[in-house]
Each structure stands twice: as structure tokens, then as C-alpha cells.
Amino acid sequence: MSEGRVAVVTGAGSGIGAATAKALAEAGLKVAIAGRSEDKLNAVRDDIVASVEGAEILVKPTDVADPAQCEALVAAAEDEFGSVDAVVTAAATFEPVHSLDMTAEAWDECLDILLRGSLLVATAAAKRLSKPPLDAASRVMTDLRDAFAEVRGQP
Predict the structure, then answer these.
(1) C-beta separation of 86 from 140 below 8 A
(2) What is the pTM of this model?
(3) What is the pLDDT of residue 153?
(4) What fold does the segment set 6-149 form as a domain?
């Protein structure tokens, strides 16, 4: 069911985003990986390509807090793979700091990446879905649920 489908994964330079990109590639999806560090993204791509036969990975450095870069990310995935079927917004930032030492700037950066970035990427993708349902966001989430069910071996 996932073979030939396309996912965009933000925050894919490490952690949950990198693991998710690999799991999606293992399930047969083509994956566009995004993050702020091109070096980290290239390392993740190299790891996936080395361990997942036939994996197709697009590296697209992206700052998810920038609307133009989010649009460019989804457009690049569509240009490379022909469509976008699913989105995983795993981009995050966190600096452990006592709440009394948190600056407004650090708080804003966290919200820009976690919340605004998720909205910007999901919206950019939803606009391009090949057959948008009444609720495009539900299609993105449904596709991810189906992809991960296949990874876990569930129908």
C-alpha cells in the first residue's frame, strides 16, 4: 500500500525525525528529509540508502520557521517524486534551562519551530495533495497511520 508513495519528514537530521524517515523508507515510501543541517541530513540519507534496499531519499535543508522554505521543501519533494502523500513534522528545538532563565527569544524560537513550523509544512503539503479530501489534514494523518501500521505488520 505504501510502495511508491511520498513522505516529507522535517527534523530528519537526528532523533525521531531520522528514525521516522528510515521507517518510512523501509515501508517503501520515497522520503524527502528536511532539517537545518545539510551535513546531518546527508549522513541520515547515507545511512538509509546503505541499509534500505532501493531507498529513494531527497535531502532538502529547510528552516521550518520560514514559510518560503516550507513551500520550497514540499515543491522539491513533488518535483523529485511526483507527489506528496504524507507529512511528518518532527522538527524541534529544546535547550534545557530553568524556567526562570528562559528568555523570550528562546521561547519564540521553540514555538516557531515546534508549532509554526508544523503548521507551515502541513499547510504547504495539504495545498498540493493530488486528490484533496474535504479535510486534507486528515489525509496526511491517515496516510501516516497506514504507513506505520505496515511497518509494524498490521493491516
Answers:
(1) yes
(2) 0.82
(3) 53
(4) Rossmann fold (3.40.50)
